[in-house]
Specification:
Elements lengths: L12 H8 L6 H9 L3 H16 L2 E5 L1 E4 L28 H13 L4 E4 L9 H14 L4 E4 L2 H11 L3 H11 L3 E2 L9 H7 L6 H13 L3 E8 L5 H18 L2 E8 L15 H14 L5 E2 L3 H4 L1 H7 L6 E4 L6 H4 L10 H10 L3 E4 L37
Parallel strand pairs: 1-9, 1-10, 2-3, 3-4, 5-6, 6-7, 7-8
This protein binds ligand V47.
Ligand V47 binds next to β6, β7 and α14.
């Protein structure tokens, strides 16, 4: 570590001793971390754990988001993305449109497609399986990280298959792993208000366990900064830690900052950078059995995500391209960054960029075709003059 630990909040001292001894923290200690304003000490401890695991490496990937439909019957208060079928802005891509987007992603060098969408009341399960099969046939080398536990629960309902058989059908079609969305906050009190019609927290965990049992790894998330308490955040994190002890199949954890614009919770104040950094740091400290903590630049902004690389995060997510869920909720970040943008952000934080695939294997670009720059969008936070959209 490059600097000494300085603690101004004396209540953190015993926690620091445990972290430095490599001991597991409990719920009370997690709560104390969230309640402390000694952000630099909390961040120092998280950075210590992060550097012990990953040194100076910061991972990123070249990926593309594909959202097949925004038509959704769940009407979650937290969401600005979902629409009724005949309301303005509603869309459902045809399979050909999806495959065309996938081909664009491949030309841009994507090694992963992140595929999630609304719970469309009329599309059959076969639409999603055909979508996956079609992409896999055309681009077998690309990892398909597709469909959250919430979507799996929904497909199981509409197909009348068990959760296990639904997952097996997805796997057979070509799904390689599952993203971590839909976890929100597991506490029933919170779910009742922010996402009443989604699967329960216990069901999310059960579907994740089943996915892991059939050999599909997944990510995990926590949506914070709305109506949840610190106790509910800690309990969410410890539920994930317990399942990870059992399956060891969560790949990475992503704290997701709530964006209130255009949602049923638009009165909720936006989270602060202080809370963002603390949440990343506490997640790193409590989730001692997760290898990776992702600072999702789309929601944090590239600037805060960069600082998060010194508060416990070791991954920036990817180039993303065409993000819809946060942008419908008022995110002002670009809709995509290039490979070169991400490397520059990481280097400027004093870290060493490593391009990875979805499962954190190093990607050797010299063995791959040159990358075509994705189309840029307005609202870029990074000066155009400093961008070089080319393979490095
Ligand atoms: O599940 C929805 C969240 C998630 C809003 O696994 C909102 O690698 C903030 O899960 N404000 C989808 N958040 C995104 C997601 C994700 C993102 C990046 C990487 C990975 C991964 C997963 O977005 C939803 C929900 O929790 N969300 N609406 C909103 N207004």
């Amino acid at each position: 570590m490059s600097s000494e630990l300085q603690i101004t909040d004396a209540r953190l001292r015993p926690i620091a001793d445990k972290v430095l001894a490599g001991e597991r923290l409990d719920a009370g200690e997690g709560l104390r971390l969230f309640e402390s304003n000694d952000l630099l000490a909390v961040g120092w401890l998280a950075n210590h754990v992060r550097e012990k695991r990953h040194g100076d490496i910061c991972y990123y990937n070249v990926n593309r988001h594909i959202n097949p439909t925004n038509v959704c019957g769940a009407h979650c208060k937290l969401c600005a993305f979902g629409r009724d079928a005949n309301s303005p802005g509603a869309y459902t891509f045809t399979l050909d449109e999806i495959w065309a987007r996938a081909a664009e992603g491949v030309a841009e060098g994507a090694t992963e497609f992140h595929i999630v969408g609304g719970l469309h009341p009329d599309l059959p399960f076969s639409y999603y399986l055909d979508l996956i099969r079609g992409i896999k046939q055309r681009h077998p080398q690309v990892h398909l990280k597709a469909f959250t536990m919430v979507e799996v629960g929904f497909y199981s309902r509409i197909s009348k298959l068990s959760i296990r058989d639904t997952l097996l059908a997805m796997k057979e079609a070509g799904v390689d792993s599952l993203p971590g969305g839909g976890a929100e906050i597991f506490a029933p009190r919170v779910r009742k208000i922010i996402c009443d019609h989604k699967v329960s927290g216990q069901m999310w965990l059960k579907i994740a366990r089943t996915a892991h049992q059939v050999g599909l790894r997944s990510n995990a998330t926590m949506l914070y900064g709305h109506i949840e308490t610190h106790e509910e955040r800690v309990s969410h994190l410890l539920d994930l830690r317990e399942l990870q002890d059992e399956t060891h199949s969560f790949v990475t954890f992503i704290p997701l900052q709530f964006h209130p614009d255009n949602t049923g919770l638009s009165h909720v104040p936006k989270p602060t950078a202080f809370d963002d950094l603390k949440t990343i740091a506490v997640s790193r400290l409590l989730l001692d059995n997760f290898d990776h903590i992702k600072a999702y630049w789309i929601m944090l902004t590239p600037r805060v995500a960069q600082v998060a690389l010194r508060f416990g995060a070791n991954d920036l997510d990817g180039t993303v391209v065409e993000e819809k869920i946060y942008h419908d909720a008022g995110a002002s970040t670009p809709q995509g960054l290039t490979h070169a943008d991400l490397e520059r952000l990481i280097r400027a934080a004093g870290r060493v960029p490593v391009e990875r695939d979805t499962l954190y294997r190093k990607v050797d670009r010299s063995q791959l075709p040159p990358i075509r720059a994705p189309k840029r969008t307005a609202g870029d936070l990074i000066p155009e003059s400093s961008l070089t959209a080319r393979a490095q």
